[in-house]
Amino acid sequence: MKLTDVIRRPLITEKTSIQREDGRTIVFHVSADADKIQIRQAIEQLLGSKVDRIRTSIVHGKIKRQGRYAGRRPDWKKAYVTLREGQKLPEFLEGA
Length: 96
Fold this sequence. Notes:
globular, 96 residues
């Protein structure tokens, strides 16, 4: 699996912005079949920052309706990445 397949995109929400204020925690949408070791390697190579710990969670898809028809969005995985002391956030996340 390529590094860009493991990390899909950073999650920028109100909750993740509050967590990012400590200067060490970043939240990413990651591939559902990626494990913590693959996530760690991808973050360290793509961002150039050392990772302290990673917490992952599966987000269950919502049920959406269009009239009388109901469908379901797919489940996806997110990773809370905590950087080591002294490591800087990447530039694209500092101003967000």
